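Format notes (please read before filing issues)

Several people have asked whether sequences and structure tokens are stored in separate files. They are not. Every record keeps both together, in the order shown below: the sequence lines, then the token lines. Line labels are part of the format and must not be stripped during preprocessing.
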Amino acid sequence: VRGTKQLNRAINHQHHYHQNSSNMDDAAYLPEPDPECRAEFMQMDEMKVQQHHVEILQEEVEELAMRGKRLRSAAVGAGMCQSVSVLCSAYMVFAIRWMLLDWTMIDKTIYNIQSNWLFWNIGVLAEIVGCVSNTLVGVLLGMIMIGAGVNPASSSLIILFKLMEQVIVAIAIIAMIMVGIFVYEDNAMSTTIKYYFYSDAFPEIGMQMSFFLLLLNKYGIIFSHVFAGLHYSFLGFIVHKFGVFPHKLGKALMLAGPCYILNASLNLLISRYNDQLHVLFALPGILVQFWLASWLLINTPSPSKNRDTLIKG
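Then the structure lines:
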């Protein structure tokens, strides 16, 4: 039995050896391909590679075109909201704060509000519309930065600072609405408040409460400028670094941001702050808002210059 197994093993080994040697001989004597066939085959491969590259380029062009349309739509929306916000702020400054409010005379201020009730209500509406428009501006600017290839974490900070600013503005608007409730005599809520809280033995508290709410509105708006300054400073830094907007606009935003913060800090810390300094520090922010609104309405944001680096990173 042992001899039979060894004999079978030797026969199988010899069979595999002959089979492998015949395969090697066949491979050794394979005919060489025709040079013309080889050239035609290589040309077909090159044409397929070129066609594949063309398809990839067409897809990239279509993707860039769609991205450009989205950026353009977002820029137009942000520019329109920014324009509405500037108009509402201008009305509040000139028609309400400079014409109706006198911070040294309470009686005169309340009388001006009662005498110009329509202008006051339009001012409240303008504050609400401006708050909503500013919120949309912050969200759209963040989306533009993300669509242009800026880091989403950096873009989200733009939205965050703008939302924090508008939350404080919303609280100031509530105080402004409460002033109307205290001042307007034909209002049902005002009549109820007078009936329960006013007394012949004490002075009317409606006037004092109204003036307190006006001060709350004033300093709430001023405090919101701190977050507005942070928003414009960070937006200008991103624009200057990534090149989505013009570099000059980025530098102007970086200048307007600290002016906002400094102006708000001086208003909060100094009781009798100089109005001329207030206008001087507020001027860069006003000009840069007009510049930003006009640029967004006319131009299209460009992709970030560091986009490829960010994608690789």
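For reference, the curators noted about this record: The chain has ten helices and no strands. The CA atoms of residues 70 and 147 lie 8 Å apart.
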